[in-house]
Specification:
276 residues; alpha/beta; Rossmann fold; 11 helices; 39% helix; 16% strand; binds S-adenosylmethionine
Length: 276
Amino acid sequence: MGHGTISDYMLTFLKEKILVILQTMFYRNRLDASGEMYRPAGLNLLTSRFNQYLIEKGYSPAWIWSEDDCRRFWSTEVNQYDNANEPQQYSSKSTELIEFMAKFWEPHVQSEYKVLELGCNAGANLDTLRLLGFTRLEGVEINPEAVKLMSSVFPDLYRHTNINVGSLEDKLPLLATDSSDVIFTMAVLMHVHPKSKRIFSEMVRVARRFIVTVEPEFANYGYVFARNYRRVFQSLGCKQLTSVTLGVDTTDDAIADYHGIILRLFSVPNVDNDLT
Ligand SMILES: C[S@@+](CC[C@H](N)C(=O)[O-])C[C@H]1O[C@@H](n2cnc3c(N)ncnc32)[C@H](O)[C@@H]1O
């Protein structure tokens, strides 16, 4: 073994050790050890805020996955990491959170509005909205297997809904300005890589009236990115009209599994006052 090889080995070893230390310092789950919403305090508040700062500014710290890894993870049916991306699971998920969201936005969002879901997977959320009376629905989804599953699990939804199959990075810029009344995301912006932050201004461009986010905001690890969406969308000229933090503002039993998720509703800039 030559000198070069030994120093290469040492360097790789050190890099790995440093990464483990950084991950220990900066990884955060949505829930704390007692299963309740993680609320950073003390030093954790500093590291959590630092994570949000980096991610919101578009930096890619060493302790997160690359943009390519994220894209590969979500665009295939099952991946090499775990089972987190099985369309079958998303198609049979419980409907409580989307029903909660529909109540949350009720004072602002009418059933005749055109609603676009980003990261709709196999369509369980859209189908629940359809059953609640929304008929003008659209989706964007990166995983073709999930959309294929939609055609067999929710055939009526699939027949009447335009689903753009592809990444948000590629598809959002192709959508016309003001072409959806409402854009919503559920557990999707949390997976948008910091380098793709242009997606947020695209959302503001495409939405005519409202943007609704249903996302955890402190969780941060490999492919989960912490952001404060109030800050993100207000910096783009939106106005937050209302928000609810699950597990803090409400402890409704039906949505107990979702503690730590924050629902926010924004009006987009230039929306007529009479629209809000
Ligand atoms: C955690 S799942 C949530 C699915 C669905 N919104 C729900 O509430 O059940 C994240 C979804 O976002 C999709 N996704 C992730 N990154 C994406 C990207 N860059 N472009 C389009 N879709 C993406 C994934 O394929 C997956 O369907």
